[in-house]
Amino acid sequence: MIGKAKKKLISSLSHKKYRDKTGLFVAEGPKLVKDLLIAGMEPELILTTNSALFEAAPDQPSTAIIDNRELKQLSFLKNPREVIAIFRKPNFNFTFGEHSESLTLCLDGIQDPGNMGTILRLADWFSIPNVVCSPDTADVFNPKVVQASMGAFARTKVHYTPLSTFCQRSAEELNLEVFGTFMEGENIYSLSLPRKGIIVLGNEGNGIRPETERTITTRLTIPKFGNPTAHSSMESLNVGMAAAIMCSEFHRSIF
C-alpha cells in the first residue's frame, strides 16, 4: 500500500500546473513504461501489480507492488494496465538553426490530446527530430498525450515557442520553405517536395491562425477524390490524418 502523499502527487499530475511545478509526469502500461526506461527517462516511482514485469526488485526505492484496487484508484485510464509510473520530465534543449537540414513539424494550437499524440508518433516514425508548438498547444506531458504518443516524445524533441516568429526566422535566416495545408492551395501530389522545411499544422476547428499563416511560403491542399458533385458533409480531414499524408508525401522523395 502506498501513502496518501504519493496518491495526492499522482492525482495532481493530471494538471499542467503541478507537472510544471514538480517537473514530473505520469505514464501507464508495461510497454510504454519499459520504452521510456529504455530511452533513458528517469523514473521517480514505478507502481505495479506484477513485479515480474521489471528487472528492478520490489524492495528497491523506485519500485513498489500494489494491488489491483489501488491501481484502479490511481490510474487515469478507464482500463488500468498493470503499471503506473512517475517520471522526471526530460529537458528538450533546442538551438535555433539545428533544424536547418531536416523537416520540422509546427503545431499551431492543436488541442486534442489524441491528435497531439498521433502527430508525435508520426514524427517518431518518420524520424523528424523536432516538433515545435505554439504555447497554447496541448502539453506533451498531459497523461492523455503521453498515452496516445506511446512514448514518441522520448525520441522526438518537443518545444514551445511563438510560431509566427519561429517560422519567419526559419524562412528568412535559414532559407527554409514554410508549408501549410489549406482548402485552396497547390496539390500536394503534383509537387516535388524538399527533404527539409517547416510543415505547419493548424488547430482542429480554426486551422492555422492569421499571424502564422502570413509566414507560410507554400500553401498546400490535399485534394478530395471521387465525384466532386456528390453530396458529402465532410469538409476537411482530421489534423492527425492530414499530418500522416503530409509526412508520407514529404518522405516519398527519399526513395
Give descriptors for this structure.
alpha/beta, 60s Ribosomal Protein L30, Chain: A, Alpha/beta knot, 2 domains, six-stranded parallel sheet, 9 helices
Helices, strands, pairings?
Layout: H1 4-12, H2 16-22, E1 24-28, H3 30-38, E2 42-48, E3 63-65, H4 68-74, E4 83-88, E5 103-108, H5 113-125, E6 130-133, H6 143-149, E7 157-160, H7 163-174, E8 178-187, E9 197-202, H8 210-213, E10 218-221, H9 239-252
Parallel strand pairs: 2-3, 5-6, 5-9, 6-7, 8-9, 8-10
Antiparallel strand pairs: 1-4, 2-4
Helix pairs in contact: 5-6, 5-9
- Name the CATH homologous superfamily of the largest domain: SPOUT methyltransferase, trefoil knot domain
Instruction: Determine the strand fraction and express it as a percent band.
Output: 15-25%
**Helical residues, percent:** 25-40%
Could you tell me the number of beta strands? 10
Name of the CATH first level of the largest domain: Alpha Beta
Run of helices and strands: HHEHEEHEEHEHEHEEHEH
- Overall 3D shape: elongated
Number of domains: 2
Question: Per CATH, which architecture of the largest domain?
Answer: 3-Layer(aba) Sandwich
Structural class: alpha/beta
- Total number of helical segments? 9
Largest sheet: 6 strands, parallel
CATH topology of the largest domain: Alpha/beta knot
Instruction: Report mean pLDDT, rounded to a whole number.
Output: 90
Strand order of the largest sheet: 7-6-5-9-8-10
Evaluate the radius of gyration: 20 Å
What separation lies between the terminal Cα atoms?
Answer: 54 Å
Could you list the spans in which at least 5 consecutive residues all have pLDDT below 50? none
